[in-house]
Structures are given as structure tokens and as C-alpha cells.
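Repro:
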Amino acid sequence: MNVIIISHDADVDGIFSLAIGLMKYPRAKTFLTGYGKENFKVMLEFINKSITSSDKNLMIISDLGMNDNYHERFLQTFRKIKGRVKIIWIDHHNWLPKTEFDINREVELILDRSGTKCATELMYERFAAENQTALVLSKIAHTADFFINDQYLPPLPEIIKYYNFFPDKQSLLYDVAKNASKGILWNVKMQKDYNEFSLLRDKAKKHVFENMKIRNICGFMVVFIKSSPYLQTSIFSEEVFKKTNSDIAIFYDDTKKISIRRGNDKISCSEIANNLFEGGGHSFAAGAYVKSGSNDVEEIIKEVQVSIRKTLYKGKQ
């Protein structure tokens, strides 16, 4: 059987979702990707190239929420390959009802709506419920994805972030997933790479704290930070909140992508993101795109300000 596994490239949940898939299907073709129009375009190209004329094709997509601006293209692709492939889409992000309805008609959609499970846990339940290694991986992914300090973790989120900026990121991240599928969470190569990364990370932190901007927006203290390939957003945001006592952190980069994190539960990150282009995520962490580039931070601040105001206005309706 020709098996394809597609998962999120940016965090432990995405990589460990792939790891559990590889436990079940060790010879599967794999593809790791992020969000945004270009990433989803490449993902569809990969799907079209990977489906064979064989009668037996299986495709698993994990830890990727549907891009609502792109879901019609996915529907077209799924309908074109229907009959040649069984598609299982596993996710835990917020989906619009219409998007969920449309996609669910074409695939087996396993979607957690409770907000209490990560994708790796859903993969564990669907493909490896009797596997103790998979159970451990699901618990690690839960800890990492929901930012709870209930167990010690090796610095997997940071090394995954680091590997994403290498030209051969697919092979580097595949190795992390493949090793995890065998119960190996850390090895000598990862330690060597992490030692190099940590020096770059500490320099980046110093630069960020010297150049960040803080604004009072609708009563919320919002800190604006230019992203660095050496700073894992969710982990670093904890330091930012402690240092600035801010409510919201906005990380922006040269691609016009922003990541949103919160220091308390006064406002939902996903609701802020939903008012921006291609926005989505969770209440505690979300992402979107802005119109302004990283060289024009004041314009980014204005866009975020409008989004926060819209979020608060909707909450009062």
C-alpha cells in the first residue's frame, strides 16, 4: 500500500504526530509543512505527485487546520483523487463550520473540538492505542503543545524551530520523527546542534529585548517583537511576559507572518488572528498574516490594534 503522511513542521505535536504515523507505516512517504497560501499550494502539489495508480493509497494529514481561504482547492483535489485514496485528516484546531462540513464529506475527519487534546493524542488513539511508546509521545506532545510543566522535556521545541531554517529541513525533521517512533527522543547530533543553537539564541534574546516595542491597546499591554530563527516563540514568550508584564506578545517576521501569544486569559489569541488574513489557532496561541512588512512595525501595530478592537467589539455583541 502506498502511504503518505503530511504533518505540521513547526512543533513537537506535528513531529510526534508523524512519529506515530511512522510506527504504523514505517515506509510511508512524508511531507512536513506550515501554514499560509504558499505552503498549502506546495502541499497540494505533493499530494498530486504522490498518489499512484495503485488501487491502495492512504493519506494521513495531521496537526494542520484547514486554511479557509484555500479549502475549495483542497476539495477539488480530493474529488479528483477520490476512489484512488483513503484520506484521514486529524486535527485539533478551530475550523469554521462550513469548512468542516465540506471537508468531512470527502475525508475521514477526526477533529477534537474540546480544546483538551493535541493532534498526537488523536493519532495515538487512531493508530497506536496499544503502543506504550506512542502513549509516552502523546503525553510529551500534550505537555509541549499546551505549555504545561507537568514533566521534564528535552529542548525539542527549540531544536525543531532551529531545523526549520535549514535547506534540508525535511530530512532533519524526518530523522527527529523517525527516532521518536523508535523511542529515541535525543541523540548526540541533536545535542551538538543544540549547543550551536543556544549560542545564537542567547544573542538573539539580547537583541530582541533592546529593540522590542510596547503599546497600550484598548487597555492591553502589547509587546511587538521581530522574530528570529533562533527563538522558539512559545517558550520565549514566557520570558517576555515575565520581563514586561505585558498581556499580549506579537512576533512578526519578513514574510508578513505574525505569531500571537498571551500572558493571561483576558483575550483569545485565535479571535485576534481571525480578524487578520489567514488567521487561526488556539485561544492561547495563534498566527496570521499582516499587510505590512517587518520594516514598518508602526503599520503592523496599527493592523493589530484594529484587530484587537474588532475582537473586543464582537465580545460585547
